[in-house]
Every structure is written in C-alpha cells, then in structure tokens.
Amino acid sequence: MGKQWMVLLLCFGLFLIGCGVQQARVFNDKYGPEQVVSRVDGMPEEGVTYYEDIQPILEKRCSACHSCYDAPCQLKLTSFEGLDRGATSLMVYNASRITADEPTRLFVDADTTVGWREKGFHPVLNECTQEPAVNRENSVLARMLALKKKNPQPEEELLPQSFDLSLAKANNCEPSESFDSFEKRYPLWGMPYALPGLTKEEHDAVLKWITDGGLSKGHKKTSPEATEIVRRWELFFNGTSPREQLVSRYIYEHLFIAHLHFEGLPHREFYRLVRSVTPPGEPVEEIPSVRPYDDPGISPFYYRLKQTPAVVVKDHTVYHLSDAKMARYNDLFFKPAYTVPSLPSYAPDTAANPLKAFARIPARSRYRFLLDDAHFFVNGFIKGPVCRGQVALNVINDHFFVAFFDPDRDMISNDSDFLAEMSPLLALPGERENTLNIPSIWFTYSRNQKKYLKAKDDYIDRLHPDHIGNDITHIWDGDGGINDNALLTVFRHFDSATVLKGLVGQVPKTAWVVDFPLLERIHYLLVAGFDVYGNVGHQAVTRLYMDFLRMEGENNFLSFMPSDLRKEMRDGWYQGTSAEFKNHVENPLLGLSRETGITYRTLTPKNEFFEQVLARVGPVTPQHDPINRCLTKTCSSDGDTPERQAVEKALRRITGIQGKKTEVFPDVSFLRVVTPPDHDDLAYTIIKNKALSNNSFMFGEERRRRPEDDTLSIVRGHVGSYPNAFVRIGVDEVDTLADRYLKVKDEVTYYLMARRHVVRRTSPDFWDEYDWHCQTFLNAHPVEGGTFDLYRYIRIAEKEDGTLVEW
To answer: Is this entry keyworded Isomerase (predicted)?
Structure first.
C-alpha cells in the first residue's frame, strides 16, 4: 500500500511539473522568451516620462501601500528601481523562522535587475518581446490596473467580504504567466487594492508609459547645489587619522538609517550615509552589510552620501546636516584631548557593544551628540526602519513621557572610565547574532543587568554619602531652554508608534528618564543591532533584553518620586502574579533607597514633577496641552483663533471618553474640520491609548489588556504613519460629532457614527480626502513630512451572520 501511495505522489508531482512546463511553453510561444530589459535610457525625454508623469501618480496612489518592508509582495513603488525590481512571494516578516533569511533591501542587496531575478523577484513590467501590445499584455502592473478598471470597486457602504485586509493575509504574488487564473479567482482585486481606482487621466498615463516600454530617461537628478555640499561632507567623513576614522565610524553607526537633509537643498532631497567600495568622486558601490557595525570586508572603504528616493512617513527619519552641525561635531569630537592608539575590532563581541567599541571617545561627547538630536534617536527605535515594529513596540506602553539626565549633573553619563569598566556587563545580544539558545542568553544578560545596576548604585553612594537622591536640576533643560529635544512623548499604535516633541496628552501611567548608557544601548539593541530578517532567537532575545532597558528607564523616573510611593507606583505598572514575580527577579529596586531631592507639595507627585520639569525647560516646550491637559482658564494657546478655540472646546469632550467605550474606536483617526472657504481647514489626530496590566511578556497581549483603563488623546496636526480612519466634519458640526462620539458603546453605534462622518474605502471622494491630509502634513512639515500608508485603513464589513466587524 505504501508503494502505491509513493507511485501516486510521484505521478502527481510529475503531472504538476509537466503542467508548469507546458504553461511556460505556451507563454513563450505567445510573448517570446524572457530576458532582462535595460530600462534606463539616456535619450532626450519625449511624451510621457517616468519622473515627471508616472512617479507622482505612483507616489500618490500606489506607494500608499507599496512601500517599506510590508509592501505586498515586496513590490516597492516609491522609486523606479523598486518597480523594475518587481515582486516576490518571499515574506520579510516571519517571527518563527529558524534561520535568518537573506536580506532583500532595495538599493542595497542587489544593484542590477539580473541580481534581483537571481534572488527570486519576478518582473511586473514586460521582459519578453519588446512590442507595444506585448508590453501592455505581459505586464502584471498593467493588468492589475486594467482589472480595477474592468471591475470597479462597488460604491457601497460596506466593502465586499472578498477583500482580506488583515496584516497576516496570504501573499498573492502572481507572475504574468499565471495572471489569467488570478483574474478569474479575484475579479475585484485590481489595483489599488480595496480602494477606488485611478482617474481616467492617471490610468491612461501609466498605461501609455507601460505600452511605450516602461523606460526611464536617466536617473533622478540631484540639485546643482548638492555637489559641493556632498563633497565637503564626504571629505569630513573620510579623514585618515585613527581619531577621524573612529569618529566617522561612530557617527555612521548612529545615522545609517537617517534620511539626511542638508541645509540649503530642496525640501524633498535626501541622502543616506553608506559605506562604499569606491572613493569620493566615483559612483557609489554600497557595501551590503546587514548591520552597520558588521565587518565591511574590505580595506580601505569609504563613507559616501547616496541620494534616497521618494519617502513615506513610516520610514522617514530625518537628520539635519549643516555648517553649524559640522562645527558642532568638531567641538564634540576633536577639541577634547584624547588619543586613539588603535581602532576597535569589527568582531561581534566588540562591535555590537558601543560602550566598548567607542570607549576612547569621551562619554560626555557621545552623550551630547545623542542629546542634540534626542528626538531622532528615540524615533529610531520607536519608528525604526522596519515599518512593522511589534517586536520593539509590544515592550512599551501606548503612551508615556521621556526626559533625560542633565549631562552636567549626571556623573555616570560623563565618566568614561566607569563606563569602560562596566562595558562587559553592558554587552548586547547582537554579539550572539542569530542564536536559538534563548533561556541561556536571557539568564546571562539578566544577571549582567543586575550587576550593572548594583555597581551603578554603589558608584552613586560613593559620590553622595549624604544619601540625597536626584532633584529637578538632574533633568536636562535643553541647554537652558533652547533645544526642543529635551522632553518627548511616545504614542504607540499597536505595531507602529510616533515620537512627538514636548509633553503631549494627559499625564500617562509611566515615564522614562534616560541617561547616556541607556540611550546608547537602546539604539544598538533596536536599531543598529536589529535584523528584520533575523531568526526567532534573534527577535526573542531582542524583545527580552528591551524589558531590562524599559524597566531601567522607569526606575530612573521613580528615583524622582517620593521614596515611600515608589514600590506602590511600580506595582501598579506590573499587575498580575506572573508579572510581579518576573519583575522581582529581573528588576529589583536597586538605586531607589535614596530620597529624592524634590520637595513635593501635593498628593499627586507625578503631575507635580512634570509641571516642574516643564517650568525648568522653559518656553521652547509648550507648558500645557490645550486639548488633553488644560492648565489655563481658557485652555487656548497664544495666537489661537476664536474658531480654533471653539473647535477644541468640543474636542475636549471627546478626550473625556475612557474605559471600555473606547474599544471600538480605531487606534489612529485623522480628523479634518472643514472651515469657510477663506480659512484653512483644521487637522487633528484622535489616538486611542490601550492599557495593559503589564509589559512583561512577549505574547498574550490580549490577555493583559485592561480596556477599563483605555483613554483617548487628541493632538493638533497629524500623528502616526498609518491612519485607520479619516473623519470629516464641518466647523459648525464639531459639537454634534462630540455628542455622537459620546454615544458610541459598541460596533453598531460606532458604525452609525462612522457612516455619517468617516470617509469609507468605498467613498468616491476617498482620494481627495487622502490627498488633503498628505498635502496638509507636507505643508506643515516640508522636510519631515511624507505620504501616509493606507495598509491599516479600516473597513467596516458585514459578516455572514449580519453582525458588523471592524478591520
């Protein structure tokens, strides 16, 4: 019987192979053999051109979903190179893989179309006989657009059930030869998927460009001013002395994810700092290392500046470079007296530990470098380059404040010798790379963390034998109130998050106070050392180690609270028997025996602490939040119009919604308040803050949910990369909107509110609303802005039993 099954399976396998061979033969007979096409043509531009006519359409309509690592089928439509690379069924996000995957980073891991074909990407433009009819018929992109035109999305209230909008949906990455079958199975799945189609003009322009061969007349041009600016900065980064090389390595490992913007260049022109085989003056050949501290494998190599294409908000982290910044680098890194007798190794046990690798650079200089742009560095791990960051983000609360120790008062952040001595205890899991021995690693790093905290406690005791702890002057004031990076707010939106300058929202449950070794380790754990293609062990130990760092930041904050309240406050953050035990094992209250130097006069010391912090930082940071944390009689800010004041008075009612009533609201809703024609419409973001009993575990977040403690925050402007809903209301209807929000209690009542005020995926004016939000954000933030991603935009669908469900 076993032999018969084996024969049957063998026959079936041969049958499938035969079908595939026959399909390929029919395909080749129809269109000719496949061969990679050179699509960059240096001839003068005529007719429809890619950069002037096609790229703007793709940016507005296609990169809304097809960008970053979570682009369906890895088809990235933010650049010509992404379109030419094509698509693949290979998944970037896979939390269960045993071995690390080969990276597939656009612009990095292959620099030719042939290279991408060898890595498993198939074309979405015709690569067979180059004739107009074949160009159109044998293009997956053209056929997806034609499918949408042939079967337009129904303009109904409820999106059809056939659309799968879940984050875990299966990839349907059909190559051209099997597209006929896909078209029959999913007639409504044309592009843009689950959204209204292109206009006739947009559709015709893209189809004409594809029919004409899908060519690009050269690469995107840099501005004339850029040449000299790039030359000067590449000269700076490629100094030859050991000190210059060490400083450049340090800066590179912190800025490798940055979209660099140079003062004086156009708002939308950005560069990346990369390591290259080729020296300045020659075309950049980027070294495709997985991590910025990996051995480059060649000596010498060069730091080069490489232009980056169109950007979307979710992976757009801007760092500003200017003449003033270069002078600041010289002050920080070259004026202090220190020697670099030899350069640190690229071996993982050194390179993955910045407190060891860069011990020669004064700690104070490194800390000031990070503080100068603290928003960028916190944003690096909160927002990060990986787009879907649940590994990093389920370790944090949905809303918390961040402050920093003053570099002039915090001795640990200035003591290079102490930090060098502690560096073995401050090693990070990146030194183990992709491991599966998770329990052993957790035990090792947990033990090291407790040893470090004990050594830190002893160090402070020696400095302060009077046993007096931190006071308000230990909080960095932004260099006398001139640097607006001093105070930050983090909002988490499930698997994405946002960092804002200042203290935004109501006073949250928790806060962090961060010193230099903590900020440095966070960057190397979650940014420099994190590999989105890494195996399950790498992702698990990264998440587990971040527990230590989060709790360290929280304990630093507790050191400013009255000593008799600290344990009670922390117990409130870690509720549940398992969490309490885990907290006791991993996070003893080391360093918290000293009484704070702050004298509190109220029964709410946490609120009082942040009031004192705001007063210390001064006018560079707004002293109150007019919607969520009103501290004045009128609750308005200077310069607010009566119109805005009236709108925000109504919105304050919505922020009073708490508890289980918030469950049905989306994580992030963009609100547009339509004003009279001679006024600018107002933009706000409604954010749901989901409460947890604790953050102690990687899994089971739903079991740790405490919906009775959920809150809503409303922020001026746009917050978040992934809007879940567009809410539109007339300026004279804001009170009505507040009334309806207050009446929402379940999916049905949310649906009744949404059908009046939320722009649906099926709305014919959906793209107009999307364009308004993108343009308004860009107008407010011409450098930091970008297009929003619609991958998380919700739908309200009707289930088979007639009930309603979100998402």
So the answer is: yes
